[in-house]
Amino acid sequence: MIPAEFDYVKAGSVDEAVAALVSGGEDSKVLGGGQSLLPVLRLRLNAPSVLVDVSGVDEMRQVSDEGSSILVGAAVTTYEVMHHELVTTHVPLLSQTAGLVADPAIRHRGTFGGSCTHADPSGDMPSVASALDAEFLVAGPGGRRTVAAKDFFVDFFTTAVGLDEVLVAVRLPKLTGWGSHYEKFHRTAQSWAIVGVAAAVRVEGGSIAEARIALTNMGPTPVRASSVEAALTGGPATAEAIAAASASAADGTSPTTDTHADAEFRQHLARVLTKRAVEKAAGL
Ligand SMILES: Cc1cc2nc3c(=O)[nH]c(=O)nc-3n(C[C@H](O)[C@H](O)[C@H](O)COP(=O)(O)OP(=O)(O)OC[C@H]3O[C@@H](n4cnc5c(N)ncnc54)[C@H](O)[C@@H]3O)c2cc1C
C-alpha cells in the first residue's frame, strides 16, 4: 500500500531535527533508516504528517572513543556498528549482535538508534544496551539529557524519548578484560529472536568476578537476569556452576505466547540460551 501523504524534512543538525519535530507537533516522527517505520506507514498503521529524517546529521553518524566508553551515534547503521573498529575492539558484544540482526540489506539501512527507539521486544540491540548499562543521550526543546538503560525501555515499542525529542547517541562501556556473547534462537537463517541472551562476564583466577545478562523477548522490554548474575558472581567459571546459575534465568519473566513459541517454551529457551551464552562469554 502507498503511505498517506506526509511532509519530509531532511535535518542538517540535531537542533534542526528538534525544531522540525516541535513545529510538526504530535503528528511528526523521526525517520532513521526507515526499515521499521516505512512498513508501518505502508500498512497505514500510522500516518504522521511530518517525517524528520536524521540520517544525514553528522553528529549522529559518528563513533567516538571517550576513554572508558564508546559513543555510538544514533544514525550509525547496523552494518557500520558491526564493522567499526572501535566497536569490534572495545564492545565486541555489540558488533557480534549487529551481525545477527536481519539481513545485509536491512543492516545497511537500519540504524542503531532506530533499533533502540523502535523498542521491539524481539529486537536484539536493546538487550545489549541493557546488559551493558548503556546511557542514552536525548535532545529536545528543553536541551539535552542522559537516560540510563534501565529507564530508557518503558514498554512494548515505547521508550523514554518524547514526541519532540531525538535520540542522539548511545554510550557503551568498554569491555576491557570481559568476555561476551549474544546467543539468539530463531527458526530461519535471518530472523527476529524468539528468545535472545546478551551475556558479558569478567573471569578472574578461574572465578566469575562480574556478570551482566539481559534477555530478549522475555517481556515487553529487555529483562536483566539479576538472579543469574548474582548466582554467577564469585562462583567458579565452570560448566556445572553456570548450568546451576542459569536455572533461574526465566524467574520473574513474562514472555508472550505467539505463533512462534508459547510462554513456557520461551522460559525453557531462556534457561538453555543463558547457559550457552555465559559459557561462551567465559571462554568455555
Ligand atoms: C524483515 C525485517 C527483519 C528484521 N530483523 C531484525 C532482527 O533480527 N533483529 C533486530 O533487532 N531487528 C530486526 N529488524 C529491525 C531493523 O533492525 C530495523 O532497522 C530497526 O528496528 C529500526 O531501525 P531504523 O533505523 O530503520 O528505524 P526507523 O524504521 O526509521 O524508525 C523506527 C522507530 O524509531 C524512531 N526513531 C528512529 N531513529 C530515531 C532517533 N534517532 N531518535 C528518535 N526516534 C527515532 C522512529 O520514529 C520510529 O518510531 C528487522 C526489520 C525487518 C524489516
Order of helices and strands: EHEHEEEHHHHHHEEHEEEEEEEHHH
Poorly predicted sequence stretches spanning 5 or more consecutive residues: none
Shape: globular
What structural class results from the helix and strand content? alpha+beta
Averaged pLDDT, please? 97
**Alpha-carbon Rg, integer:** 19 Å
Major β-sheet profile: 5 strands, antiparallel
Residue fraction in strands = 25-35%
Number of strands: 14
Q: Which strand order spans the largest sheet, edge to edge or round the barrel? A: 4-5-10-6-7
Total DSSP helices: 12
Bound molecules: flavin-adenine dinucleotide
Approximately how much helix is present in the residues? 25-40%
Report what the structure shows.
- By secondary structure, this protein is of the alpha+beta class.
- The chain has twelve helices and 14 strands.
- The chain has helices at residues 14-24, 37-42, 78-83, 85-90, 92-98, 104-109, 112-118, 125-131, 149-152, 226-232, 239-246, 263-281; strands at 7-10, 28-31, 50-53, 63-65, 69-73, 135-140, 143-148, 153-155, 158-159, 166-173, 179-185, 195-204, 207-216, 223-224.
- The strands form four sheets. A five-stranded antiparallel β-sheet has the order 4-5-10-6-7, with helices on both faces.
- Strand 6 and strand 7 (143-148) form a beta hairpin.
- Helix 10 runs antiparallel to helix 11 and helix 11 (239-246) packs antiparallel against helix 12 (263-281).
- The longest helix is centred in the C-terminal third of the chain and has 19 residues, at 263-281.
- The radius of gyration is 19 Å and the shape is globular.
- The mean pLDDT is 97.
- The structure holds flavin-adenine dinucleotide (FAD).
- Flavin-adenine dinucleotide is lined by residues 29-37, 54, 74, 78, 101-102, 106, 110-111, 113-115, 117-118, 123-125, 161, 166-167, 191-192.
